Every structure is written in C-alpha cells, then in structure tokens.
Amino acid sequence: xxxxxxxxxxxxxxxxxxxxxxxxxxxxxxxxxxxxxxxxxxxxxxxxxxxxxxxxxxxxxxxxxxxxxxxxxxxxxxxxxxxxxxxxxxxxxxxxxxxxxxxxxxxxxxxxxxxxxxxxxxxxxxxxxxxxxxxxxxxxxxxxxxxxxxxxxxxxxxxxxxxxxxxxxxxxxxxxxxxxxxxxxxxxxxxxxxxxxxxxxxxxxxxxxxxxxxxxxxxxxxxxxxxxxxxxxxxxxxxxxxxxxxxxxxxxxxxxxxxxxxxxxxxxxxxxxxxxxxxxxxxxxxxxxxxxxxxxxxxxxxxxxxxxxxxxxxxxxxxxxxxxxxxxxxxxxxxxxxxxxxxxxxxxxxxxxxxxxxxxxxxxxxxxxxxxxxxxxxxxxxxxxxxxxxxxxxxxxxxxxxxxxxxxxxxxxxxxxxxxxxxxxxxxxxxxxxxxxxxxxxxxxxxxxxxxx
Length: 453
Prior knowledge:
Blueprint: E1 5-6, E2 11-15, E3 18-20, H1 30-58, H2 63-86, E4 99-101, H3 106-116, H4 118-128, H5 130-137, H6 139-142, H7 148-170, H8 182-201, H9 204-208, H10 210-222, H11 231-235, H12 253-279, H13 287-306, E5 312-314, H14 316-325, H15 330-344, H16 347-354, H17 358-383, H18 388-406, H19 416-422, H20 425-439, H21 448-452
Antiparallel strand pairs: 1-2, 2-3, 4-5
C-alpha cells in the first residue's frame, strides 16, 4: 500500500523498496530528468554493448562488422525503450523499463552463428520472435508451466554456459597470438577487482556504475601496453543511416527452435522485471502492463533482427536502479532511450566501444556473467523449497545442460541439425527442468507459501 503526498515537484510514497520520489507518470524538470536519464544509460550501457561484442567475437566478425553490430544494438535499444515506455498500440507496458540486448540469447546465438553463419542468426531471431508475442497474449495461462524452479535453473545455465567465453576473452580472445599472456590476464584481473571493489565499498552512483568505471580504467591501462587499437575510429563516419538486413537472412529449423526456447526464457525474465518495476511504487502490474511489456519484447526483438541487432529485453539492473533511487518516472527512462538512439546513429561512438581490448571485456564479462548465475541462484533459493524432488531436478538439468555445452564432441554421431539442438546447454538443460518438473509428482517447484496462494 502507498501513502501519497503531492507537491509541485514530486510524488513521494512508501513502497516495499523505499521512498518514491517520482511516480511513473511524473515529469521531473529537465535539469533533473536529463542527468537521471544519463544515469540509466550508464547503468545499462556496458551490458548492452558487451553482449554484442561477445557474440561478434565468438562467431569471427571483423572490426568494421563488429562496429556496425554495436551501433545497431544501441539504436535498437533506444527505439525499443521508447516504445516500451510510451507504447505503440498494444505494444509497450507504459512503464519505466529500459530495453537492451538480452543476455539469454548470447550462448544460443553463438551456437547458431558458428554452425550456420550470421545470416542464420537474424533469420532465427525474426522467425522465432512470435513465440514471445503469443506468451504475451496468454501469459496468465502459460506462466504456470514455468515456476521459479524451472526459470531459475535456466537463468543459472545462461551464466554457467558463458563462463568459458569470459575466460577466453580474459586470456586475450580466441585464436589470439598473445593468448594467455600475463599482461592479458593482469588487465582482466584488474578490471574484475575494480568492479568488485567499487560495487561493494562505494555508495550511490559509483557502486551502480562499478563495471563501467572498471572498463574505463582497463582502457587506460591497456593503451600504453599496445593492446588498444583505435584505428577503426578514424575510419568510422560521424552519422549513418541504418540499412535493414545488412548481413542477409537465412532460415534453419534447428536454429529457429533454439531461438524460440530462448524467447520463452526471456519472457519469464520480463514478467519478473515488469512486476519489479510496479513493485517500486507499491503495486502489482496490471494485465495490460504485463501483456504490453511482453509484446514489446517480442515485436522489438523482431525489429532488432531486421535491423541487424540481437533480441532486446527488459534490463533488470535498471529496475534495481529505480528501486534504489526512488525515481520511477517513465519520462526519465524515455530520455535514456533518446540518448541511445543518438549514440546509435554515430558510428564513431560504436567504433570506440568495438575497440575494447579482449582482456578488458573478459574482466567485465566475469562479473556480468557471474551475476547472471547468481540471479538464477537467488531466484531458486528465495522461491523454491529444496526438497529431494527439487534438488534432483536442479542437479539433472545443470549437469546435462553444462555437459553438452562443454563436451559437444560427445554428440558427433548425431545428424548435423540435431547436433546444433542437443549442443545447446540452455535448450537441453531448460527442457530437462521443464519436463522433470511436469512429470515428477510434487508441488511444481513452489515454496509452501506459493503453493497455497
């Protein structure tokens, strides 16, 4: 419940998260709204550019292609954020939700790209997006299939399957002649250490932007060591107009199935973020807000595939920022979206980001991917009773999911398309959790409180 007091500048209310300084429909003065919008930008910036960098590097794209991918990621994130905030028809929650590249898709898209090429990635992203749109329309009926036990296991697998990628980049990047050099490992370790220290021992903005601070320091340290190559920045233009399907598009059934399952997983994440956002102002999300949020995820991810970007979803760290600051104004978040659009139209900005040395990216990735695992772990720990049944489901799902991811050669006797499907740890582990939860008698993975609700 909330106790609302109005004045000329803001609305303050009690909520489960603390004091609400600006409600969802409030418009702070521009002198406050602009820096608050920049704060949202900084909170999500590294994640929304690091994930495309990881995918581009893992599938072997060159620097100019990587720069373009990053540019499109920023542009689409900005447009998606504005649509989510203000809506286009039924698409959009009309809540202060920041959108960006989804971490759920990193491992699946790397698997698709290495098996079929980048055109197949965008084909799968576009064709599979209606899965989340359907979930948006029928989320009340379908949500019971995905209790915290299942979604928590899948989110943990997202983090675990990305661990090898983080370590590879920390050592210098796959195939690098300097792979494993102490300089690479030292820079990665420095970035990791600074991120942890700033997050744990500083308050307010420095804590929220700890990974960004660590990356800036990593850049500065890498430059005199000859690890920072900014030659691509000079070649990049100042303004460009995005072109659809720049890399072409291909359709492979196994790739589409993998992407479709990832859309199911990210739908569950978005449901949590929508509830978390409205929770900061002391209420539950309405059906219209939930449907609009999921529809925005699906529709704007399809839009992302057409415009050479990877699927977009709500950013949980920005939901946390709203609870931390008490600023729930969607006007502020729309300003963040505007900044992203501007940055996405300036190739030089994308070129600077794309030049990030691999060890710097690796040190940041250890933190980011580790936090994804931790979020899944917390989801299970806080919502699931750890009975013998539920522990069995967790164990089987994690071992099978992680096993096929790191030992894909064990599947060499299967047909090629089936190898792609069975080699996806997210798909194998997620389906294992989903099926076992459905067939093993029990409470469906809920806590006692949830089961009786």
